[in-house]
Design goal:
The chain is built from six helices and no strands. The protein is globular and about 45 Å long. It is mostly helical.
Length: 171
């Protein structure tokens, strides 16, 4: 039996209320959007590249966002001494293997749960334990905003990739 990416039900982000639930809600909505762009596709379809020489694929985006989540929330914000799951920035895109798609999706979902736990009790005003290479501190608020921007950009890529794979479009 061929593995296919499971269906996703996205919850609407909050439309009113305090800042933290709004940021959490928007980030979760974009996480769900990325996965919804993959739903129903096989590992082979997920690994299809956009246009040579680009290595951009839906599976590559899932792998990339696994490491981006880990980097910002757990390595930088919490100061956890962790390697990147896929080694380098390019490896998330370049070394996709359709046979490992289910494992890559499971790793993404596990990372999201670890990220949620890592920041559950943190204030939006708390700053990175390990500042990025430029040495400037970043607040958790900034990280949430950056991650929403990162997902928004990559979900746009995912729209185009999905349409290329099987013609499906939508939100």
């Amino acid at each position: 039996m061929t593995w296919t990416a499971p269906p996703v039900t996205r919850a609407d982000e909050p439309f009113t209320g305090p800042e933290r639930p709004n940021l959490d809600g928007f980030l979760d909505w974009y996480r769900g959007t990325l996965l919804s762009k993959c739903a129903g596709l096989t590992g082979e379809q997920l690994a299809e590249r956009a246009v040579p020489p680009s290595s951009l694929s839906l599976l590559g985006l899932v792998r990339h966002m696994t490491d981006v989540e880990r980097a910002w929330f757990r390595i930088r914000f919490r100061g956890e001494d962790l390697p990147f799951r896929y080694g380098t920035h390019a490896a998330g895109f370049d070394e996709t293997d359709p046979a490992r798609a289910a494992e890559d999706f499971a790793a993404y979902e596990a990372e999201i749960e670890l990220v949620r736990a890592a920041v559950a009790d943190a204030s939006l005003d708390d700053e990175c334990a390990v500042p990025p290479g430029d040495g400037r501190g970043r607040s958790l608020r900034w990280i949430f905003t950056h991650m929403i921007e990162e997902y928004a950009r990559h979900c746009g890529h995912a729209d185009l990739l999905r349409e290329r794979v099987d013609g499906v479009t939508g939100d």
